[in-house]
Specification:
Elements: E1 4-10, H1 16-26, E2 31-38, E3 52-57, H2 63-73, E4 78-82, E5 86-88, H3 92-99, E6 112-114, E7 122-126, H4 127-133, H5 147-157, E8 163-165, E9 170-172, H6 179-182, H7 184-202, H8 213-220, H9 241-252
Length: 253
């Protein structure tokens, strides 16, 4: 099996050292862990060890820059990005690369299946695919918010596929009270970033895409609608979502 480069962007993370230890102890193949310290921190750092790299930034640059910088220094064939407060299944690295192919096969098992959305706390892909095909993360058009939306849409709209792998697992500590403490720019930029992201992708502004945004919606339709799947209004899609977005965007301006 090939090497997996594990990227961990970090800002004031008290569980960073434990996450690094978890990544090494649960891996069963060749891995390296690249931690990006986005600004000064007073929390404990992981102890030095082989195949652990620390990228220290005196001034915070943000999540997208941190991931791009780490990816450029990665020596593994595959990238696994994870938050600094996660746990992993035994042998997660081998299972993920076994089931990750540059040209995905047709669905043979429901355990490796197509998905429209992922949680941004962890994703896995081929290193060259992330850097060359997707072009890394856009640090000019977007702020902190919704890194996972960018990688999902870049993958699907450029002809790739986003898959959920049920053959392994990871666990993420969700601390909603820590948003402004860990990444201060996220809170202030969230609404504006959401609008920029929506306008960018709905209007098909990415030059590398071969599918339009409508193509992806149609592929997974019906999305959550009133009375179906969820009662949370923010997750509901209307049949006339195109008109709704257009009117909402004009009101925001």
């Amino acid at each position: 099996m090939a090497k997996v480069s594990i990227i961990i962007p970090s800002r004031n993370e008290k569980y960073l050292a434990k996450t690094v230890e978890e990544a090494f102890s649960k891996a069963r193949g060749k891995i390296e862990v690249i931690v990006v310290l986005d600004g000064p921190t007073s929390d404990p750092l992981p102890s030095p060890r082989p195949n652990l790299k620390l990228i220290k930034k005196s001034t915070p640059r943000g999540l997208r820059v941190a991931i791009n910088d780490a990816a450029q220094k990665a020596t593994g064939k595959y990238l696994l990005k994870t938050d600094a407060h996660c746990m992993f299944d035994i042998g997660y690295d081998l299972i993920l690369q076994r089931d990750c192919q540059e040209k995905c096969r047709e669905r043979q098992d429901v355990n490796v299946d197509e998905t429209m959305a992922i949680h941004g706390s962890m994703w896995f892909t081929n290193t060259d695919y992330f850097l060359d095909k997707l072009g890394g993360f856009d640090t000019k058009n977007f702020g902190y918010y919704a890194e996972h939306i960018e990688i999902i849409l870049k993958t699907w709209l450029s002809g790739g596929r986003v898959m959920v792998n049920k053959n392994t697992w990871y666990a993420h500590l969700q601390d909603v009270t820590a948003v402004d403490r860990l990444w201060p720019e996220k809170l202030s930029d969230m609404k504006a970033s959401h609008i920029r992201i929506a306008e960018y992708w709905i209007n098909n502004q990415w030059k590398r895409q071969i599918h339009g945004f409508d193509w992806l919606i149609d592929k997974f339709w019906p999305l959550p609608l009133p009375g179906r799947h969820t009662t949370k209004d923010k997750y509901l899609w209307l049949d006339n979502w195109r008109d709704y977005y257009s009117k909402t965007s004009e009101m925001e301006k």
